[in-house]
Structure formats: C-alpha cells, structure tokens
Amino acid sequence: MFQHHRLNSEITLFQKIKNLDYILLVSVILLSVLSLFVMYSTDGGEILFHTKNHFVKLSVFFPLMIFIALFNIKFWHNFSYIIYLIVILLLIYVSFFGIKSSGSQRWMDLYLFVLQPSELMKVAIIMCLAKYFHRIKIENVNSFSSITILLSIIIIPIIFVISQPDLGTSILIALSGLIILWLGGIKIKYFIYSFITFLISLPFIISFLKPYQKLRILTFLDPDRDPLGAGYQIIQSKIAIGSGGLNGKGFLKGTQSYLDFLPEKHTDFIFTLFSEEFGFIGSVGLLILYSIIIFRIVRIGAISRSNFARLFCFGYAFAIFIYIVVNLSMVLGLLPIVGSPLPIMSYGGSSMLATMIGFGIVLSAKINHKQMIA
Amino acid sequence: MIKSNSGIRKTDVINRRMFLIGAAKVVVLVGIIARLFSLQINENKKYLTLSDKNRIREWRLPPVRGNIVDYFGNVIAGNLKVYQLHIIPEQVENFNYLLVRLKILLNLSEKRIARINKLKAELKPWDSIIVSENLSWSQFVKINNYLYDLVGVKPVMTISRNYPFNDVYTHVLGYVSQPNEQEILENETIQERFVPGMKIGKLGLERRLENHLIGTNAIQRYEVNAYGKRINQLEHQKGEQGSKIRLTVDTEIQKACGELLNEEAGSISVMDIYTGDIIAMYSSPSYNPNLFLFGISQDEWQLIRNNPLKPLINKTLSGLYSPGSTIKPIVALSALENKVIDTKFKVKCTGKMELYGQTFHCWKEKGHGWVSLKNAMKQSCDTYFYEVSRLLGVDRLNITAEKFGLGKKVLGDYFDTEKKGLFPNTKWKKNNLGKGWVLGETLITGIGQGYIQTTPLQLCMMTAQIANGGFTIKPKIIVDSNPISYEDAKQSMESGLLFDTDSEELLDKKLFKNQQNIKIVQEAMFASTNERFGTSYKSRIDDPKYQFAGKTGTAQVKRISKRERELDLELEQIPYKDRDHALYIAYGPYVNPRYALSIIVEHGGSGSKAAAPIAKKLFKLIIDRHDLRNKQSNFERITI
Predict the structure, then answer these.
(1) Which of B21, B29, B39 to probe the A interface (max A CBs under 10 A)?
(2) For A225-237, what is each residue's pLDDT tens digit?
(3) B430 touching A, CB under 8 A?
C-alpha cells in the first residue's frame, strides 16, 4: 500500500504521458477531425467562418485537455468545491452583466471568445458531487442534512440557468447531478417518491413554462400543427435524416443543409447534416465512436482506486451519454426541441471547453488510477 | 480498517448502480438506433420524396403554338422571337438610377415606371420584372450597347405569336391573348398547361383549334434553396410545338380581296365548286390581330370598337343580308324543277304589279315588256319573278333554297359566330310570328327581300352548287388528312351518292330532278354577265379563259317610300345608312368552271355598279392561280 502511494505520487512526466488512455485519445481525435469535416460541409464546402473557428477551438482546447490530464487527480479533488463555487459566481455575474442574445442572457464576453458558464457547470456539478460522496461516510448518505446539502448543490445552479432562460442546459445539469446522487447511494425509494411527486406536479410546472416552451412541447407532440412555424425545424430535420438512407447522399451533397432547409445546422442540428450525408451506416458509426468514448471513461472509473475518480468518471460518462441521447432524440423527433449540443461535433466554444475539461480530468484519473485520496 | 471497509462498501454500491445504468444505456442506445433505422431505412423513400419536393421546383414555360399555313404552305399565323427586357431586382445596385436610365433609353411612360415599382414591391428580389414585353430591334441593340451601365438588367429572347399578314386573315384566324379565368376553367387542356404569360386563342380558328394548336409546356427543373431562390438548373425538358394546321385559303387571293374592298364595309368569299375548299373569306374592314398580343391600348381598342363599319364582325359568316336579286337563280331553278315554268314561259313587265290592292314595283320603272326566263334573269326583271314565285309558292321555293344551303350553317361548328340565316316558309311564319303567310310576302321573297336573310358564304356556296351542275358540296377551310382532288370530287358528284364521314349517312349529292334545269339557270346567269343589256355586262371578261357568269343583287335596307321612288336620288344624296347593299354572285370560267364567289359591299348602291366590277378584277387572279393550286394539292397532308 505504501509502495503504491510512493509510486503514484512520484510519477514522471514521461510515465504520465505513457499512461494516457490512447483509445480514448484517438477516439476524441477522430471525433474532432470528423467534426471539422462536417463543419466544412455546413459552410457549403468551403473553409469559412465556422470551420475556421471550430478548428481554432479544437487546437486550443485539445492541448488544454492534455494539460489538465497532467495534474494529479488529487489536485482536481482538492479544487472541486472551489471550481464549483467559481462557476456559481460566473453564473451570478452572467445573470447581471451577461450578453443578451435572442431573448436570453447566458454569455459573458472574454474578449477572445464568448463563454457560457452554464456549460462549465455541467462538469463542475459532477466534480462537486463526486467530491461530496467521496468524503461522506456511506452511513450518512441518506441523512436529512446530507440530502439537503446535495439538493442545494443541484438546485442553486439550476435556478440561475433556468432564469437565463435555458431549459435545456438546466435539465442536463439536473440529470448529471441526479445520476451522481444515484451512484452515491441515495435510496431508490427517494428517487421513486421524487419521480411520483414530479409527475403529480407536472401540470403545475407546465403552467409556469414560458409560452415558447409550451409551444415546443405542443410542436413535439404534433409537428404538422404548424409546418412552417414551430414545427418547421423538426419536420425538416426528419426529412434530412430520413432522406439520407443507408449510405447517405454523400459528403457535401446533403441537399437539405446545402439549400438552407436545416435550421441551426452548425449547432444543435449538426447530426441532421451528418446523417443526411453519411446515412444510417455513418450515423451508427458515429454512435459506435461515442460508445467507445463512453465505455473507455466507464472503464477508467472502474479501475480507479479513489471513489472521487470513480464517481467522476461514471458521472461524466453518463453525462456525455445523456447529451448525446437528448440531442439525437430531439433531432429524431423523439423529444421536444430543447437546446442541447452534441459533444465535440456541435459548433460552440463553451460546450467544447467543458467537454475537453471533462476528458482532461478523466485522463488525469487514468494516469493516476492507483492514486488513493484520503 | 473501518474507514477502508466503508470505502469498499461505497465502491460496491457505486459499481452495482453503475452496472444498472450501463444496462439502461444499452437499451436507450438500441432505441435510438431503431429510430434511425425506421427513418433512414424503412421510411427512406418517403423522406427522399419530401426532400426532393423541398429542393426541386419546376418552372413551366408557355407552350409554343402550332403554325397555321395557307394552302401553299405560307405561314399565316406563326411564332416570332421577341426581345424582352427583364430586371432582376437583387442584382440591381441602384434601382432608381436604373429606372431613370431605362426611361430615357426606352421612352417609358410614367405609368409604366409606377407599374415597375409596384411589381418590385410585390415580387421576390430574385424574380424578374418584365420592363418591356416587346422591344424593337433598335431598342434591343441600344440596351445591349449600354448594358455595362445597366446592372441587373437582362435582355431576354422569347417566342410570341405573330400574324405576318397583319389584318388579312383576322376574321379567319382570330387572335391570341391572355386568357381570363373563365376561359381557363372551361378548357381542360388550357387549365393543364396554363402558365402566366401564356396566350390562348380568343376568336376564330385560333380559338376553335386551341387543343390542336396549343403545344406542350417546356419544363425547367431547378434546385431551390429554403427561400425559393433558384440555385442551379437540373434539367430542361423541351416542350412540343402545337400541331401545324393547313388551311385551304390562298393568301394572294385573300390579300386581293382586302385591297378590292378597300376599307369599305363588305365581304368577299371564294370557293372551289367541286371540293368545297374556301379559297378566300375576307370581311372588311379588318383590324390588325398583332395589336392584341401584348395587350391592346385602350385608345386602339376604342378605335376598333367604335368604328361604324364594324370591323369586329366577321361579315362573311355573321353578316345577315337580304340576298336581293342574287336569289333569282334559285327561284328560277325551283320553278323549273317544279314544272311551274319552262324556257318559253313569258311575263309582261309593265314596271309594276298589282296584287290585292298592293303595288309591287320592278326596279325598271318603264318595265321590261314581255320577258322569258333568260331575259328576266339577264335584266333582273322583278315583275317576272313576282309572277313566277306567285305561281310557285313560298314552300316549294323554300325546299329548293334549303337544298342549296340557305338557312343552314355553311362551316358547321368551326366558327362560333357563324349565323344560319333564314329562308322563310308558311310554317315558319306561323310558328315564329303566329300569323298566316300572305301572298305578297311570297312575291318579295322571290326577289330576295322580306324575311329572307343570308350570309355571304351561303350565297357563295349556293352559287358553287349551281356552278358544279347541281351537286352538294361540303365547304371546308382546313385541309383534311385525305384531301380530295377536284377530279375525284367531280366524279363522285356525278355518281350521285356519297358516304358522308361526319354524319355517317349517304348523302344525296344530286340537288336536282332534271340536270337540264341547272343548265338553263347557268345559261341565264351567263347571259346576265356576257350578253348586251345584262346587268353585269360592263364587268364581263371576253377572254374565254377568264369568262364568268354571275348575277347582281341590290338589297334594300329600308322600305322605299313613294316620294323617294319619284325622286330617284343619286347614291351620294342618300344617307350612308339608307343606301342599298350591293351584291354579286358569280362562277367561272364559264366553260369547265372551278370557282364561285360572292361579293357584298354594304351600302354600296347597286350590285352592278359596286359589286360586279370587283368580280371582274378578282376573277383574273383566281383563274391565274388555278394551275399553281392544282400543283399544290398534294403538298402536305396534315391530320387534325
């Protein structure tokens, strides 16, 4: 035990690099290259604004991921609460001084790029909760004070995000938080009770929704209700995906996107373009790539000695999974339209930054998987 | 150790719960893939169709109408390349500057400029605005010279209907123009092929043969973006030009008819007496159908509409006239056929005839003395025909007249506006006027006055059937798939019976009981033109090659009062509206005849002075073109 401790704390840079998870790394690189090609297609087969910016972001955030990985997982454990608090402060800052755009106030101007703190919260909340469960004794997990603290950790950021307003991100933050609660050992009955309470209060919640949010739900239930208005996105998205067929229409040949029928094709609807051009085979291939990434993260969690690393990896793997599922269900018409990007593929700096930070911490856990944290 | 135990227990909980989540993830992932499969594989066709519907839009171009040619193949209704000027607003840098430039270059009116501005506001920026539908060549060249300065302007070449002979064929062909809503709804073919800017036949053969002439749309398929802007052309499907139609008419003769009538109100019809081919059919005055192609101006339209000589009426088919003395050949024939008279039968003309206290005047106040049929016809003695028709009776006369085509449409359904005219009998009067027939009415019917109404084409056909020896002909203006040569037509006539393909029955070709009677009438008509004292003697041609036989007619348009009769006014002294119509029917050459004609000059005065001289001028041309026409008989056979 002591031996291990000594070995891990005195690991050299060379060994660290050697210990990186190369399957995960290669998958992320593959995904990044793929995302560049798709971005090139959204620009109509030219290297324009989106492709250039996406490339710049990848080339900044990918090294950042490696940089984060080189820190000991213990370091990230120690700073988890502080990181969480910093992101909370950023959310507070945004709610007062943030940039307004199309009716919501989510962003802060960092001169070089515009940051959306709610995206960072997706990772921060997992770190914070992982640390909490790491430290608390299993006997105390279901105590009243523990549950109160846990719920507060989840609800405080959500209040800020939902008031931006940004329903999509707040749901994703909540889901990421809840999954850690589940993994950490909160009793199943509490989940069941909460779920029943949620169902009962659903009509009440709906009455609090903004008109456009209600419209989205109605549109989801029946997209043909208003084919040129609210239902336009989902109808066109389904047409694009459906017309892709088995092999797709070919790279740069997606007529739906090329001819501007697809809305927000750079961001939330990027999968639509991908699927139109590369078809069922391409789409399943992309899902397999994502599955490999998720599986690798889960594996890293499973071999980690510390429960912090384990919880973070499991939680983060689930978060990535849920982003993908929500995004795909949305473009496939299985869920109402809520703004949620597809990790790495979608255009958007904050989302990519948060994803890369998450990967960085996962890689740090891999390098230091034998590290015990007191 | 307790701590470490607790740590292990915690790890177990985490791992166990992670396993459950892992299982859930697989289920969800399978669900997503199933959905992808259903969209991309199962419903691929449906979405592919929807995607194409999204991106491909068809632009149909107006079909190109079929040409109409005359008997000699000259195009009389064709298509012309026209130069148009379009503006594409999104390409224009400074719209107002452009309009100012165009205004100067093309001399555009303020109204036109306002219209362009209105269109610009209504249309999408990439839709072109038509500035000018029909640029002259010089305008087109001018625009092309200044094109560097006119950003966003596109000179376009397109196809438009064109009538190269202007007003010569207006009443035969009609004209084309933009259809109104009702016209689109009425005709399924038009409905199917309609595109804005398309023109359809409004009148005449253009209207009647619409479904043959119309042609099919050319289709251009474009890929469009979500906003409807054309991105690139995918396909161009050529349209088919409408069927070509060959008419029986001869442009040279038709043109000559127009020149001879010289803007006076009237009509000339010329017909082949064996085949029934209409050689010419001119109604005067005419108007230029090309005016209607690009929208006639209000001023021009009013000028045509308000012309007292009524250019809008096709007088050949729709003009109803008392035939006057031109009916006399039929009266004579009917009397001969019914054995009421013979060539020796004579009547003494004293200038008038008294009947039940009513006086019936002969045109010659002093009277003609004792006249036989030949003399009566030659000098057009009214008294003789009063007496003959009194003996014959109107009902027997009616039978003969209807046999020869009076009171019936000549061309059937080809012209909507064709009138049937009227040849009265006692039954007709009882049914329609509710009164009994009066003998006096028989007398005036015998000189072509009273209830009787004929169209110029009916008179032409009647003359043709006398000329060919008394056989039925079926007049036609379109060359059918199986044109009959005149020898065949002549032979089939003489055989007496002919199977009519239209009515599917055997037609009795013979209109006579004794062909000798026809001869007698022919000889009388010959005398009227070629013997001294004949009413059209002055208009005769002595050369046997061109020699023709005819009959003049002068139709009263109002009852002549006793005072007027005594005054015996010159033509110029009578108000235009009250002047008699001048008529003339003729056929020739007298030996081996081929053509018959009828001429009417409205309010022209007497037939011998106003109408017969026209025949003299026309006959030479008609006969001279006979050989050419014969050579053309197999020129082209077109089925419609």
Answers:
(1) B39
(2) 666 666 778 888 8
(3) no
Helix axes B456-467, B328-337, angle to 10 degrees: 50
Low-confidence ranges of chain A (pLDDT < 70): 1-10, 220-230
- Residues of chain B contacting A328 with CB distance shorter than 8 Å: 32
Mean pLDDT of B58-76: 89
**CB spacing of B55 vs A310 below 8 angstroms:** no
Cα distance between residue A257 and residue A371, in whole Å: 48
- The answer to whether residues A269 and B63 touch, using CB atoms and an 8 Å cutoff, is no
Segment holding B369, helix H or strand E: strand B369-371
Minimal-distance CA residue of chain B relative to A309: B11
- ipTM for the whole complex: 0.89
A252, amino acid identity: L
In terms of average pLDDT, the best of A289-303, B38-52, B134-148 is A289-303
- Strands (DSSP E) contained in B202-305 are 218-224, 230-237, 245-246, 266-272, 278-284
DSSP A252-273: T--HHHHTT-STTTTTTTHHHH
| Burial tier of B558 (Cβ tally within 10 Å: 0-12, 13-18, 19+) | exposed
Task: Give the integer Cα–Cα distance in Å for B164 and B166.
Answer: 6
Cβ-based neighbours of B498, under 8 Å, separated by 6 or more: B472, B492, B506, B507, B509
pTM, 2 dp: 0.67
Quote the percentage of chain B above a pLDDT of 70.
95
What is the distance between the alpha carbons of residues A170 and A212, in angstroms, rounded to a whole number?
16
Buried b (16+ CB within 10 A) or exposed e, A318-336: bbbbbbbbbbbbbbbbebb
The larger pLDDT score, comparing residue B508 to residue B216, is at B216
Q: Does A292 touch chain B (CB under 8 A)?
A: no
pLDDT at B507 over 70: no
Please tell me the distance from the alpha carbon of residue B133 to that of residue B150, in angstroms, as a whole number. 18
Find the angle CA(B611)-CA(B617)-CA(B623) to the nearest 5 degrees. Answer: 120
Q: What is the pLDDT of residue A366?
A: 93
Distance, CA of A261 to CA of B95 (rounded, Å): 30
Token output for B348:
């003494």
**C-alpha distance from B278 to closest chain A C-alpha (Å):** 60
pLDDT tens per residue across span B115-126 = 888 888 877 777
Question: Mind listing the pLDDT tens digit for each residue in B530-558?
Answer: 998 999 999 999 999 999 999 999 998 87
- With contact defined as beta carbons under 8 Å apart, do A223 and A231 qualify? yes
Interface subset of B 33-52, CB within 8 angstroms of A: 33, 35-37, 39-41, 43-44, 46-48, 50-51
**Listed residue (B553, B356, B556) closest to B462, CA to CA:** B553
Tokens of A100: 């307004």
What confidence score (pLDDT) does residue A5 get?
A: 47
Pairing of strands B176-177, B200-201: antiparallel
Sort out which chain A residues have CB atoms less than 8 A from B21's CB and list them. 179, 182-183, 314, 318
Of the two residues B382 and A166, the one the predictor is more confident about is B382
